[in-house]
Design brief:
316 residues, alpha+beta, Endonuclease, Chain A, 4-stranded mixed beta sheet, 3-stranded antiparallel beta sheet, 14 helices, elongated, Transcriptional regulator, AbiEi antitoxin, Type IV TA system
Length: 316
């Protein structure tokens, strides 16, 4: 068999692993010169990282880059940050871009070559179960948040993890305190918002609006019950002194279509119990906050003008 050919049985094994380390090809008998020749421009292969080759010459996908980064960083490496969050099924964080963020043991020495962010850590976590070696979702969310500078992006990242029930605010806070203090100020501030019940970027914007309204601060995402103890709804914001519920009408954050119908039914239950309900579209809150603020003050005055109904709100 020629020295530059891979045995047929090994070819079959490699078909499912198009990203391989050069050392594996060498163990199969391919000289480095042959590998280098095949990775030249126009050749059948493509070099993705030092020592890591794609056995086709097509443009590398993000999954290709992830596999290459893991192979390059060696055994025990874990994906974290935006790449891990996307593979965990999260959707509201920024899309993965730039170098693939990988956690490696503190003794590992890898430069990354500008295409891998190899972060050495003494706290290498146990990978989450699944096809990819991923950092746990809370660690991945905070590893990304420490590197973001846009407050709303951090809000979207951390709020979705909590909103979907994948991690609690307390667990995120504990993970933040256990890690490096570098870049922790912004996620720490956002976690304080989440800690008082805020569960989305829009709710965080609403919270900022209320703080300059002169109105009493509401409770965020409480459970509201009538006088008999029957559950009515979980409004986004609740002004308890006047029984005013503020709903920010976003299907995206609160439900699928079936769940959204349930949400509408619960809003009707609030109104039937005598609760004043204000509805605001997220788009309006984003572009016309002064108008929303005027409406909120007017609704508060309206709620104040009638007797408070016999309802109870339990904080989130």
């Amino acid at each position: 068999m020629p020295r530059n050919e891979i045995p047929a049985e090994e070819c079959a094994a490699l078909c499912g692993a198009l990203i391989v380390h050069v050392s594996r090809l060498e163990r199969l008998g391919l000289p480095r010169s042959t590998i280098a020749k095949r990775c030249r421009p126009g050749g059948p292969w493509r070099r993705l990282l030092p020592g890591v080759v794609k056995l086709t010459n097509g443009p590398p996908t993000r999954d290709d880059r992830r596999r290459a980064a893991l192979i390059y960083c060696g055994a025990g490496a874990l994906l974290t940050g935006a790449d891990a969050l996307e593979l965990h099924g999260m959707q509201r964080m920024p899309s993965p871009w730039g170098p693939v963020h990988v956690l490696v043991d503190e003794d590992c020495r890898r430069s990354g070559s500008g295409r891998v962010l190899a972060e050495r850590t003494s706290r290498l976590p146990v990978p989450a179960p699944g096809r990819w070696p991923l950092a746990p979702i809370g660690r991945a969310a905070l590893d990304l948040s420490r590197r973001l500078t846009d407050r709303d992006q951090v809000r979207a990242t951390l709020a979705e993890v909590v909103q979907r029930g994948r991690c609690t605010a307390m667990e995120l806070s504990a993970e933040l305190e256990a890690g490096s203090g570098r870049g922790s100020a912004l996620p720490r501030s956002v976690l304080r918002e989440i800690g008082v019940g805020v569960r989305s970027v829009t709710e965080a914007q609403a919270r900022e609006l209320v703080r300059r309204s002169g109105l009493p601060l509401p409770v965020w995402n409480p459970q509201v019950y009538d006088g008999t103890g029957r559950f009515l709804a979980m409004p986004d914001a609740w002004f308890d002194d006047v029984a005013l519920a503020w709903q920010i009408d976003s299907v995206e954050w609160h439900a699928d279509p079936v769940g959204y119908r349930t949400t509408l039914e619960r809003r009707s239950a609030l109104a039937a119990a005598g609760i004043v309900v204000m509805h605001t579209l997220p788009s309006k809150l984003a572009v016309n906050r002064d108008e929303v603020l005027a409406e909120l003050r007017a609704m508060y005055r309206h709620a104040w003008s009638r007797p408070r109904p016999n309802v109870i709100a339990v904080p989130a």
